[in-house]
Amino acid sequence: MCDRNGSSNVREGILVGCGNPLLDISAIVPMDFLRKYSMNEDDAILAEDRHMPIYGELIESFSAEFLAGGSVQNSLRIAQWILKQPKVAVFFGCVGKDRYAEILEDKARSAGLDVHYQVREDVPTGTCAVLITGTHRSLCANLAAANHFTIDHLADPVNKAVIENAQYYYISGFFLTVNPPSIMQVAQTAHTNNRPFLMNLSAPFISQYYMAPLLAVLPYVDIIFGNEAEAQAFAEAQSWPSGDLREIGKRLVAFDKLNSSRPRIAILTQGCDPVLLFQQDSVQEFPVTRLLAHEIVDTNGAGDAFVGGFLSQFVQGKSLDVCIRCGNYAAGHIIKNPGCTYAGEPQFIE
User: Fold this and answer.
1) Which of 76, 80, 262, 326 is the most exposed place for a label (fewest CB within 10 A)?
2) What's the Cα-to-Cα distance from 134 to each of 27, 137, 317, rounded to whole Å?
3) Which one-letter DSSP state was computed for residue 13?
């Protein structure tokens, strides 16, 4: 529901997300820079020792911008922008006790998020290099403090109450690299209370290297998001035929599920090709508005924005087709702006 001003009318704290809060360090770079760090266009990787100089080099040599980032935090910021009502979404993640954390919290709260960061004094706040080459972007994340989230933060009485009182839960596959027990606890809470638990495949490397915790949580997942590369990586890891996205989506929907009264839904994006919605035996296509080349500023955050748009409608009880169309709207808007940022008032028309 919306009021006369277009703001939503849902209660505070209805949506909880867990993920990795990162400060994005974003810059336009030449292809040689990617090759220097053995990266490819559209990579999404975790930093190794050889990548550590990348952050300082971006700041010193490429006029880098700082943006509040991290996949789930991005999605929740976009949802808040569209909802135009503060504190609908609550975000959990771990940061350091430093200036970067202050910047992150300030930007998150100014975007309407209610953040419940776990703070570690012994490690710095995480960063993510966003390397823009034309309309492509490559991500190299140094999780740092984000990698130190612990389940005891969820046991804090205030945080525990927040999680118990939520109606919707969203977690990224990226969080599987950090603290699977926390994911399982949130998933079990959602299952016990018969509330939707949504998850994102997030990046091909999750299926390649973190399949065990992914398979552990998947039976709890009511809605799973992914793009074509992520879906194909999952299929390859499962030894499924990986060339047919429709077949992969059908198999994802049919994968083991604890709550059989709520059949799993899979939503797979394909860039400028139609979004595919899989429900039991049906597959629906939702066209994406193609942008002209000069309209595309930066594809960074498009997937996060899609989920944010979807969530903004889903927590209002809207139909799946409305949720997906809002996801497409949000992704299209974000692509026209640098990083996962937005401009002006949302213009989504249901």
Assistant:
1) 262
2) 11, 8, 38
3) T
Other C-beta atoms closer than 10 Å to the C-beta of 79 total 30
> What whole-number distance in Å separates Cα of residue 111 and Cα of residue 13?
15
Q: Which residue in the list 24, 98, 304, 321 is annotated as catalytic? A: 304
Distance CA 213, CA 201 (A): 12
Q: DSSP letters of 73-139?
A: HHHHHHHHHHHT-TTSEEEEEEEESSHHHHHHHHHHHHTT-EEEEEEESSSPPEEEEEEEETTEEEE
- Report the alpha-carbon distance of residue 89 to residue 85 in Å, rounded: 10
Q: What is the 3-state secondary structure (H, E, C) of 238-304?
A: CCCCCCCHHHHHHHHHHCCCCCCCCCCEEEEEECCEEEEEEECCEEEEECCCCCCHHHCCCCCCHHH
* Position with higher pLDDT, 124 vs 67: 124
CB 187 within 8 A of CB 219: no
Mean pLDDT of the 164-185 span: 97
Report d(CA 311, CA 221) in Å as an integer. Answer: 15
Q: What is the pTM of this model?
A: 0.90
CA distance 161 to 6: 30
Which CATH number among 3.40.50.150, 2.40.10.220, 3.40.1190.20, 3.40.50.800 corresponds to the domain 15-21+69-125+143-335?
3.40.1190.20
Strands (E), 134-262: 136-142, 168-172, 197-200, 223-227
335 pLDDT above the threshold of 80? no
Is 304 among the catalytic positions? yes
Q: Note the Cα 341 to chain centre separation in Å.
A: 14
Q: Kindly tell me if the per-residue pLDDT of 7 is higher than 80.
A: no
The average pLDDT across 100-109 equals 90
